[in-house]
Amino acid sequence: MSEFKPQIFSGIQPTGNLHLGNYLGALRKFVALQEQMDCIYCVVDMHSLTAQLVHEDLKEQTRAITAAYLASGIDPVKHIVFNQSKVREHAELAWVFNCVARVGWMNRMTQFKDKAGKDRENASLGLLAYPSLMAADILLYRATHVPVGDDQKQHLELTRDIAMKFNLDFEGKIRNSGTGIDITVGDQPVHAFFPMVEPLIEGPAPRVMSLKDGTKKMSKSDPSDLSRINLTDDADTVARKIRKAKTDPDALPSEIEGLKGRAEADNLVGIFAALSDRAKADVLAEFGGQQFSQFKPALADLAVSVLAPITEEMRRLNDDPGHIDAVLKDGGERAGVIAEKTMKDVHEIVGLL
Length: 353
Ligand code: TRP
Prior knowledge:
The protein is mainly alpha-helical. It has helices at 20-33, 58-72, 89-100, 103-107, 110-116, 125-139, 153-169, 171-177, 235-243, 263-275, 280-287, 292-318, 321-350; strands at 7-12, 38-43, 80-83, 145-147, 181-185, 188-192, 198-200. Helix 3 crosses helix 6 (125-139) and helix 9 runs antiparallel to helix 12. The protein starts with 6 loop residues before the first strand and ends with a helix. The mean pLDDT is 96. Tryptophan binds at residues 9-11, 13, 44, 47, 134, 137-138, 146, 148, 152, 155.
C-alpha cells in the first residue's frame, strides 16, 4: 500500500490588511512547516472576486500578501509562492469539481450562509462555489496537509467529500489510467487519484481574539482599530494597543484552569505563548500572580521584538514591486508544471479529448 507524497498547500485572500491573528494563525505556522514538508503558499486572488467583484487595488493587495509571506520567512526558492490566477488550471479543475459537488453541500457551508446574509438569491454564483475552487487549489497539487484556521475546517471536510466522490465515481477510469494509488479511508480501501487532506489547525493560538472583546475573533472588519494589531503598525502603536487592551481587575492565575471565564486574559496569555513558541501553562508558570500592569509591558516588548522586523521587511518589499512580481512569476511557473500534469491526468480520467 503506497501513500501520497506529503505536500502542504495553503492560501490567503488578498483583501484587507493582515493582522496579528493572520500572523499567528497562519503565517507563523506556514513558516514552521517549511522544515517538515514541501510547501505551496498561494495568494488566492480569484477567491476575492466571490464576495465583491470590483476592487480598487487587487494587484497591490496581492503584492502585499506576498510581501507578508516573504517578510515572515517563507522561502520562495525552496518552496513555492504564487498567486492563484497565474495558474489557469485552478479554474479548470474547479469546473470539474462544480460537477462533482452537489448544490446541497454548498448551501450548507457556514461561511456561505454568513457572507450571503439574508438575500441568498443575490449572492454571486462564485460565492456559492467558493469551496469548490478551494478544493481545486488544494487537490491540483494533490496536497495532503493544509494549515488553516478552525473556521476553515468545514471547507476542508468538503474538499475530502469532493476528493472521495471523484475517486469513487471514476474508480475504474483511475485504475485504467494508471495514475491512482491504493489508500484506505477509515476501513475502506480506495483506489484514489486525490488524497484525503488533513487540516493542520493546532497551535497555541489557533484563534486570536479582539483586544477589545475576548469573545470575538480579531478581525480586519472590526470598526475599532484598537481591537487588532495590524502587521503594518509601528512599534509605538503595537505597544499602545496592548496597553489599552481590555482586561479584568484580577491578577494572572498560575494555572490554565484559572483562565476559564476570563476571555481577555486567556487571549493575551495565548498571544504571549504563540509569539514565544511556549505553552500557555509555561507562560502562566512565569507570570502567575502578576497584575496586567506588569504582564502587558512584557507582552508589548515581545510583540514588538517579533513583529517589528517583519513590518520593516514588508515596507521594504512594498517599495520593490518588481521583486515581488518576479517571485510570483517564478512561483507561478513552477506551480504550473505540477498543475498541468494533474490536469492532464484529470482529462484522461474524465474522458475529455
Ligand atoms: N478559504 C480560505 C480562507 O478564507 C482561503 C483559501 C482559499 C485557502 N483556498 C485555499 C486556504 C486553499 C487553504 C487552502 O482562509
